[in-house]
Amino acid sequence: MKIYTKTGDAGQTGLFSGTRIAKYDLRLHAYGTLDELNSHLGLLRDQIPAEWDAVRAELAQVQSDLFALGSHMANDLPEMVARLPHIDPAWIARLEAAIDRMDLDLEPMRNFLLPGGHVLVSQCHVVRTVARRAERWVVQLVDQLGADDVPLPEPTVAYLNRLSDYAFTLSRWLGKQLNAPEIPWISKA
């Protein structure tokens, strides 16, 4: 299979139905940002030391989850929904359990924190902020879908919201494991 098809050279791409839409369409912003988020997660996962294989496995699972979510965003055929990966609300509970597990090792926050202190901490913050942007695009997409459009699975927005919380907590947990300083934001006001 060739990697280039030339079908997007005119600024359009195809949905599952074959319908051509502009590359600036809201759907593309939404699932394109999921793709970007997935790439940042891969970079983070690749930098995690082998001693934290459980965290690397969590990140790989999140990457798989994001592919599933993206497939629903590219779908405009009601009959296709049953053939797409099931989006399970238990994915949110999985992220919450990971957040709670890591939080047990952390001191309560007393300030807002500036991203930084270690490259892994900073990469977690990149993941967090891209997850927030993906969430904003998805919320806008959900709000603009018409009655005839295929709706996104219910837990999509909540999953992205929790994923950004997971990335923030992971930044703090990794920082503690690496003895990296937390950098408090001190207001000059």
Structure description:
It contains 5 helices and 4 strands. By secondary structure, the chain is mostly helical. The strands form 2 sheets. The chain has a two-stranded antiparallel sheet. The mean pLDDT is 93. The chain has one domain (12-182): Hypothetical Protein Ta1238, Chain: A (Up-down Bundle), CATH 1.20.1200. A hairpin with a 5-residue loop joins strand 1 (12-14) and strand 2. It is elongated and about 50 Å long. The N and C termini lie far apart (59 Å).
Assign the CATH topology. Answer: Hypothetical Protein Ta1238, Chain: A
- Biggest sheet: strand arrangement: 1-2
Q: What is the mean pLDDT?
A: 93
Number of H- or I-type helical stretches: 5
Largest sheet: 2 strands, antiparallel
Q: Identify the CATH architecture.
A: Up-down Bundle
What is the class in the CATH system? Mainly Alpha
Strand content: 5-15%
| Structural class assignment | mainly alpha
- Find the count of extended strands (DSSP E, 2+ residues): 4
N-to-C span: 59 Å
**Percent range for helical residues?**
55-70%
Give the CATH H-level superfamily: Cobalamin adenosyltransferase-like
What ranges have pLDDT less than 50 throughout 5 or more consecutive residues? none
How do the SSEs run, as a string of H and E? EEHHHEHHE
